[in-house]
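2024-03-11 09:14:02 INFO worker-7 job=invfold-0412 stage=load source=structure_tokens
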């Protein structure tokens, strides 16, 4: 296990998603103060709302388990129930879905194009560090969980 009890994540995931989204929104209807199509606003708004609900549910699981949601703080438990039965990273899935919802609502093709690059950064610089940390800290318990549950969906 590493010297400090955390994954060593240097890029806060919400900041990463936000930065890519802000660049993407430079190519949106919103940039000039327009609202875009009503249908896209409704679809994007609904997707964003549902995503935030899942994000809050996932974050609450950490609190009820007595663990930290922030990847720069110690993880004290492997959560395997609720949405964590289906994804090892439901918070990042929810952030990505909210990102897509906002991009749709803003009619931003560029934001959609940038999402895979954002997910690559999250995968390489956040999830990879978290997985190494959790394997070191929890050993077979995490390896077994990892074998049963997908990283994303």
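2024-03-11 09:14:09 INFO worker-7 stage=emit residues=153
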């Amino acid at each position: 296990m590493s010297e400090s009890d955390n994954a060593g994540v240097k890029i806060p995931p919400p900041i990463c998603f936000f930065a890519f989204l802000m660049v993407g929104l430079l190519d949106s209807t919103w940039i000039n103060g327009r609202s875009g199509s009503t249908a896209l606003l409704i679809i994007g708004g609904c997707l964003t709302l549902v995503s935030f609900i899942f994000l809050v549910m996932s974050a609450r699981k950490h609190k009820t388990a007595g663990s930290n949601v922030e990847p720069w703080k110690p993880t004290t438990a492997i959560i395997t129930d609720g949405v964590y039965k289906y994804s090892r990273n439901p918070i990042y899935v929810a952030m990505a879905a909210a990102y897509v919802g906002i991009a749709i609502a803003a009619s931003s093709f560029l934001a959609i194009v940038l999402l895979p690059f954002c997910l690559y950064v999250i995968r390489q610089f956040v999830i990879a560090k978290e997985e190494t940390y959790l394997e070191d800290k929890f050993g077979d318990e995490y390896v077994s969980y990892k074998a049963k549950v997908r990283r994303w969906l």
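2024-03-11 09:14:09 INFO worker-7 stage=report msg="The chain has a mean pLDDT of 95."
2024-03-11 09:14:10 INFO worker-7 job finished
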